[in-house]
Design brief:
The protein is built from 20 helices and 31 strands. The protein is of the alpha/beta class and 651 residues long. It is globular. 32% of the residues lie in helices and 23% in strands. The strands form eight sheets. The protein has an eight-stranded mixed beta sheet, sandwiched between helices. The chain has a seven-stranded mixed beta sheet with strand order 5-4-17-16-18-19-20, with helices on both faces. The protein has a five-stranded antiparallel beta sheet with strand order 22-21-23-25-26. Bound molecules: 5'-O-[(S)-ethoxy(hydroxy)phosphoryl]adenosine (WTA). 5'-O-[(S)-ethoxy(hydroxy)phosphoryl]adenosine binds next to helix 11, strand 20, strand 25 and strand 26.
Length: 651
């Protein structure tokens, strides 16, 4: 089996059953849903779709599966914004708080469901007025402010697909995504607060539009930080000016269940990010289902907080669509967890009496480093369920989360899923599953996973590749503009199975342990970054002739990006050049993709057929004993690289 990014936790045998008290009050307190779904998973999902959502036209067909194309609830019609907003307001819950929003500088907004609905209707009218129609794509490049979910929901109201671009991405990344999606409009803000000062966004959009994306006709700008950006006459419009004249009447348009809801670009194994397509009915069903049962959500009393960024799929599904469909009250926070102090999260939890916290292992490891004094300053007793997502969680981080945030009593849900899966796939249910620190445990009811070996044989115990064996409602419907790549990437490796790209282990008790990516995708602080993408940004620098990128183990970020580069003839190696090359990647792709280290090397280890041997470079980066080098064209190269990298090859 290809080498996965992290080690197997061979000796982890601690178990944590749910408490009797939790089970007694849980949304799911026994195995009945698993039994129901095992007996007939289509009927199970149909029941969830009917119970959790409101349909304008009820569906009569549950699933049409022509591998690799799934259609769920195809003849039904519904509107996402109506499910998230109108129906709660119509049921008399309009005064319920949808979001307690907190800006990084400490400014606060309390937004009720009826206020949110009004804003969404107004912005939907703004969209219509500037020519956005059903089926168009709208790019959104924003900080974590309330206008972001408002813009997303307004798109869904009129059937335009949004394509949210993470606010940390570069101008090139914006241009590429807008070109690929043929976006008509970009919604942005002048800036957002980041560690105490405005991080500018609008100038980045301007640069993106200078270089390309001719389909973009208009830019709508929220004034968040008063940074007075340049406004291009005829193209750029202030959000507040357009909203001032917008009507509050805007009926939600019923959409076909398979209508495109959004695109979200994610890194794959090539240099070009993939526009993952999610559609309306199936996506909303699974997102609402998992949000309700994985987080044991009690909409009348809970204050739920997913501390992710809406720029990633976690924010789409578990800040916007899941919580609003279920009519719950959420906290939304703009800034970083260390501003103004390292207790920011715990302070927010105490003040709002947060009941569910959903965060990432990389954040937990950072909190561990900051010390238990920070959470200990605060009363965290309101918490009921703790969630984690984005990368494998190491047992130490799991135990710290359990003890110091969960008071050794709250269930932890380690949720494995992907941009492509749309919603949680493998996770404990807090009132049912006995957990083990570091294991995501089992697939949810209605999802079926198996491990296979290199030849595609099913693995009953031990290591293998994670595959999903049946379609699921929130699965991706394709890659925007690239049908062949959809089949090729996910459905061609193992016949009849969805290949996730992750390695995993099944232990003797049937628990799943996710081990990280087995392809050329790195996971840095829970963010997916393709080695190829970083390599092309490196060779884009004029001094670089060739580059190879690997993810090395990193205690804090899970993996760290290490770039090995060969210089062009006229350039000579220096620390300055190394950091200049590193910065260049930051400019090309965004800061999150900037290598931690750039190592200038005389040559790269290649097989006789000319393929770069990343495994060896990973060994060098991790300081591990070097693996088999006999297939190398020039075995001497590795020793020389190891020396330059300052990594020993003995231990
Ligand atoms: C990894 C994030 C182990 C995995 C929702 C997957 C995880 C990739 C977990 C998807 C977890 C996510 N345990 N690994 N609980 N959650 N991953 O698309 O490698 O940003 O393939 O979606 O993150 O990352 P993506």
């Amino acid at each position: 089996m290809a080498e996965a990014a992290i080690d197997v936790y061979e000796n982890e045998d601690r178990t944590f059953p749910p408490s009797a008290e939790f089970v007694a009050a849980a949304n799911a307190g026994d195995r009945s849903m698993y039994d129901e779904a095992d007996a007939d998973y289509e009927a199970f999902w149909a029941r969830q779709a009917r119970e959790l959502l409101t349909w304008d036209t009820p569906f009569t067909q549950t699933l049409d599966w022509q591998l690799p194309y799934a259609k769920w609830f195809e003849d039904g019609k519904l509107n996402v914004s109506a499910n998230c907003l109108d129906r709660h307001v119509e049921a008399g819950r309009g005064d319920k708080v949808a979001f307690y929003w907190e800006g990084e500088p400490g400014d606060k907004v309390v937004l009720t469901y009826s206020q949110l609905l009004t804003e969404v209707k107004k912005f939907a009218n703004v969209l219509k007025e500037i020519g956005v129609k059903k089926g168009d794509r709208v790019a959104i490049y924003m900080p974590m402010i309330l206008e972001l979910p408002i813009a997303m929901l307004a798109c869904t109201r009129i059937g335009a697909a949004h394509s949210v671009i993470f606010g940390g991405f570069s101008a090139d990344a914006i241009a590429d995504r807008c070109i690929d999606a043929e976006a008509k409009l970009i919604v942005t803000a002048d800036a957002g607060y980041r560690r105490g000062s405005p991080a500018l966004l609008k100038p980045t959009v301007d640069t993106a539009l200078e270089t390309g994306a001719p389909s973009v006709e208009n830019v709508v700008v929220v004034n968040r930080c008063n940074t007075e950006p340049e406004m291009v006459e005829g193209r750029d419009h202030w959000w507040h000016e357009l909203m001032a004249g917008a009507s509050v009447e805007c009926p939600a348009e019923p959409m076909e269940a398979e209508h495109l809801l959004y695109l979200l670009y994610t890194s794959g194994t090539t240099a070009k990010p993939k526009g993952i397509m999610h559609t309306t009915g199936g996506y909303l069903t699974q997102v609402a289902f998992t949000h309700k049962y994985v987080f044991d959500l009690k909409p009348d009393t809970d204050i739920y907080w997913c501390a992710a960024d809406i720029g990633w799929v976690t924010g789409h599904s578990y800040i916007v669509y899941g919580p609003l469909t279920n009519g719950c009250t959420s906290v939304m926070y703009e800034g970083t967890p260390d501003t103004p102090g390292k207790n920011r999260l715990w302070d927010i939890i105490e003040r709002y009496k947060v009941t569910q916290l959903y965060t990432a292992p990389t954040a937990i490891r950072m909190f561990m480093k900051w010390g238990v004094e920070e959470p200990q300053k605060h009363d965290l007793s309101s918490l009921r369920v703790l969630g984690t997502v984005g990368e494998p969680i190491n047992p130490e981080a799991w135990m710290w989360y359990h003890e110091h945030i969960g008071g050794s009593a709250r269930p932890i849900v380690d949720t494995w899923w992907q941009t492509e899966t749309g919603a949680n796939m493998i996770t404990p249910l807090p009132g049912v599953t006995t957990t083990k620190p570091g294991s995501a445990t089992h697939p949810i009811p209605g999802v079926f996973a198996e491990l296979v070996d290199d030849d595609g044989n099913v693995v009953e115990e031990g290591g293998g590749y994670l595959t999903i064996t049946k379609p699921w409602p929130s699965m991706l419907r394709g890659i925007w503009g690239d049908e062949a790549r959809y089949f090729e990437t996910y459905w061609s490796t193992y016949e009849g199975r969805y290949f996730a790209g992750d390695g995993a282990k099944l232990d003797k008790d049937g628990y799943l342990w996710l081990l990280g990516r087995v392809d050329d995708v790195m996971n840095v602080s829970g963010h997916r970054i393709s080695t190829t993408e970083v390599e092309s940004a490196l060779v884009d620098h004029e001094a670089v002739a060739e580059a190879a990128v690997v993810g090395a183990k990193d205690e804090l970020t899970g993996q760290a990006i290490i770039g090995y580069v060969i210089l062009r003839g006229t350039h000579s190696a220096s620390d300055e050049l190394g950091s200049e090359i590193r910065e260049h990647v930051g400019v090309k792709l965004g800061k999150i993709a900037r290598p931690k280290t750039v190592i200038i090397v005389p040559d790269l280890p290649k097989t006789r057929s000319g393929k770069i041997m990343r495994r060896l470079l990973r060994d060098v980066a991790d300081g591990r004993q070097l693996g088999d080098t006999t297939t190398l064209a020039d075995p001497g190269v590795v020793a020389e690289i190891a020396e330059r990298a300052g990594a020993g090859d003995e231990d």
